[in-house]
Specification:
The complex is a heterodimer. Chain A has seven helices and four strands. Chain A is an alpha+beta fold. A four-stranded mixed β-sheet of chain A has the order 2-1-3-4, covered by helices on one side. In chain A, helix 1 packs antiparallel against helix 2. Chain B has a five-stranded mixed β-sheet with strand order 8-7-11-9-10, with helices on one face. Chain B has 17 helices and eleven strands. The radius of gyration of chain B is 22 Å and the shape is globular. The chains are: A alpha+beta, B alpha/beta. Chains A and B meet through helix 2, helix 4 and helix 5 of A and strand 3, strand 7, strand 11 and helix 13 of B. The structure holds flavin mononucleotide, iron/sulfur cluster (SF4) and FE2/S2 (inorganic) cluster. The site of iron/sulfur cluster has 14 residues of chain B, from helix 14 and helix 16.
């Protein structure tokens, strides 16, 4: 197994204070753009915070090979910024001693990493067979109408991104959707979807 | 009704806490097993004839004996908690409701194969299961059930929770190892098999969550007792995932070999709407070839009985369809999944799955052409047995079953340019 390896030599040296990064404005994450891994050219994003870097170091120590911390490290970056930008990828690459291109390749393989900012709330509706049988398509069309976006889109106020996904392992309580980290099941009658959305800021 | 084992703590208040688990007799099996030589633990599991619950049904104890005895390298246990097969939702229940049972099974099994580290690979979407399991690991460590010198026995076993990020193929064992090594989840060519060169090139055993949850019971009560549950060569309790057009879908525990229609009618409460008839059942998750209603009578739900019927128990994801379901559309939903999830390494799989998906989609949209069914069967034929992993077969076999068993429905669709069933 010999993937290309790059030392830190080829990488940009990032200022430790993110506010020194050109184009960075504190707290400004533009909430627009498609969800999903299409982002071949990811947004730049910000440098990781010191806390996140420490967290990644802690994760690295859990494994015999530091590269195993890649998926967990990407989760740290995504948790912090809402997506994994190219800056975060470069930093993680340097920490794990792989090339940024290798990290980008891994990111694009997994559907759960976002490479561009998305809405504050990510709504993922399962439309695989068991959910389909219990009315998943009605949930999708209801959400499209209610939010005024197509699947893959983000509402103009940046509040919601709507996507459809494959089976989430919740087929016995179909139809269901995942809202950010949480599963919401048995969404029949559909009024439950409205109640759910209304409960959100 | 048979005694509940795997689900005995489900629904009990505080079932996920160490306190309640211990009160209900938890960790007694570990106390016993950790003082036994690893070989005796393996022998007991071998004697029980426990078969893997992740899909293939391979004998667990036998798999453990494949680990080389004299390798100087570290040895690993990987727990497959990727659960992404459509129709399957049992491992999530176990991890969320009874994480300590999962953990006790993991620790005993790691001891049996002399692994000092167990990695639990949980699919990325299962945030709650991951948190619950992590809490269980932390609590168990405080109590000395894992970590260094477990319960004073001298054995060291650590458990690391690892979160995936949304890729069905990472449930395949070699893809999972690649993913755990921080790479894309590309299946590896076998041999070498994981027991010889697995994670980081070291001896590795990979088992499903439910498989390992059986182990504490076998150690506590003995293989002879275990063999009294279920059927010959198909022993033990099984979690069945019932979904689709049923009154009471959900996870149900029953012995291996329980009749399919008993599950559907007694546990699942029968079809969800009166006046509808059963049309078809997928018995073992999306990869399992579909059974027509006529074929569903007298189907014992175990590995061998379903194989004899040219389907499979797989992950026991039972998906029930009533007579309002269009089989063209049902297959479209299944193939859309597979087309989305192929890792793309092998041409027959990468091209084949999206090809048959596009044909079904076209038929469904009214653009079917005569000869489409033959083309699909032909493409499937060219996918089976020609790829690095069995994903391609897992997509082609169910597709062939749908087309062969509901051929007239596909042909009607093609001729009339639309669905011939009334909208439900
Ligand atoms: C495409 C594919 C996906 C799989 N997904 C899973 C899965 O999500 N969970 C699982 O336990 N096994 C899955 N398996 C089976 C595993 O490769 C492996 O056989 C299993 O984890 C072994 O554990 P067991 O012997 O305890 O069943 C999958 C296999 C294939 C080919
Ligand atoms: S059969 Fe499909 S999923 Fe398996 S390795 Fe080949 S391309 Fe990947
Ligand atoms: S089919 Fe929707 S969660 Fe499984």
């Amino acid at each position: 197994m010999s993937e290309p390896r790059a030392g830190t030599g080829g990488l940009k040296v990032l200022p430790s204070d993110p506010s020194k990064i050109p184009g960075f404005a504190a707290g400004s994450v533009a909430l627009r753009g498609p969800a999903g891994p299409e982002g071949i050219a990811p947004d730049e994003g910000k440098a990781l915070t010191a806390g996140s870097r420490l967290e990644i170091d802690r994760l690295v120590a859990l494994y015999p090979d530091r590269r195993s911390a890649l998926l967990p490290a990407l989760w740290v970056a995504q948790k912090e910024q809402g997506f994994v930008g190219s800056r975060a990828m470069e930093e993680i690459a340097a920490k794990l001693d792989v090339s940024p291109a290798f990290v980008a390749g891994v990111v694009s393989f997994y559907t759960m990493y976002q490479t561009k900012p998305i809405g504050r709330h990510l709504i993922q509706v399962c439309t695989t067979l068991s959910c389909y049988l219990r009315g998943a398509d009605a949930v999708v069309s209801h959400l499209r109408k209610k939010l005024g976006v197509e699947v893959g889109g983000t509402t103009a106020d940046g509040k919601f991104t709507l996507v459809t996904v494959e089976c989430l392992g919740s087929c016995g309580t179909a139809p269901m959707l995942q809202l950010n980290d949480d599963f919401h099941e048995n969404l029949d009658p559909i009024a439950k979807v409205d109640a759910l959305l209304d409960s959100l800021k | 009704m048979a005694e509940k084992l795997l689900t005995r703590n489900v629904g009990v208040p505080g079932s996920a806490t160490l306190e309640v688990y211990e009160q209900r007799g938890g960790y007694q099996a570990l106390r016993k097993a950790i003082t036994l030589p690893p070989e005796s633990v393996t022998d007991e599991v071998k004697k029980s004839s426990l078969r893997g619950r992740g899909g293939a049904g391979f004998p667990t104890g036998l798999k453990w004996t494949f680990m080389p005895k004299d390798s100087p390298k570290p040895r690993y246990l990987i727990v497959n908690a990727d659960e992404s097969e459509p129709g399957t939702f049992k491992d999530r229940l176990l991890m969320e409701e009874d994480p300590h049972l999962c953990l006790e099974g993991i620790l005993i099994s790691a001891h049996a194969i002399r692994a000092k580290t167990a990695f639990v690979y949980v699919r990325g979407e299962f945030v709650r299961a991951l948190r619950t399991m992590q809490m269980a690991v932390d609590d168990a460590r405080k109590k000395g059930y894992l970590g260094k010198n477990i319960l004073g026995s001298g054995a060291d076993i650590d458990v690391v929770m690892h979160r995936g990020a949304g890729a069905y193929i990472c449930g395949e064992e070699t893809a999972l190892m690649e993913s755990l090594e921080g790479k894309r989840g590309y299946p590896r060519l076998k041999p070498p098999f994981p027991a010889v060169a697995g994670l980081y090139g070291c001896p590795t055993t990979i088992n499903n969550v439910e498989t390992l949850a059986n182990v504490p019971f076998i150690l506590e009560r003995g293989a002879d007792w275990y063999l009294t549950i279920g059927r010959e060569k198909n022993a033990g309790p099984k979690l069945y995932c019932l979904s689709g057009h049923l009154k009471r879908p959900g996870v149900y525990e029953a012995p291996l070999g329980t009749q399919l229609m008993t599950l559907v009618n007694e546990m699942g409460g029968g079809l969800w709407k009166d006046g509808r008839k059963l049309k078809a059942i997928v018995p073992g998750g999306a990869s399992a070839p579909v059974l027509t209603a006529a074929e569903c009578a007298d189907v014992p739900m175990d590995f061998d009985s379903l194989a004899a019927r040219k389907s499979m128990l797989g992950s026991a994801g039972v998906m029930v369809m009533d007579d309002t379901v269009c089989m063209v559309r049902a297959l479209e939903r299944i193939l859309r999944f597979f087309a989305h999830e192929s890792c793309g390494q092998c041409t027959p799989c990468r091209v084949g799955v999206s090809w048959i998906h596009r044909i079904v989609k076209r038929i469904e949209d009214g653009g079917g052409q005569s000869g489409d069914c033959e083309t699909m069967l032909d493409v499937c034929d060219n996918m089976i047995g020609k790829t690095i992993c069995v994903f391609a077969d897992a997509a082609a076999l169910p597709a062939m079953a749908f087309v062969n068993k509901f051929r007239s429905e596909f042909e009607d669709h093609i001729k009339q340019g639309r669905c011939t069933l009334p909208e439900a």
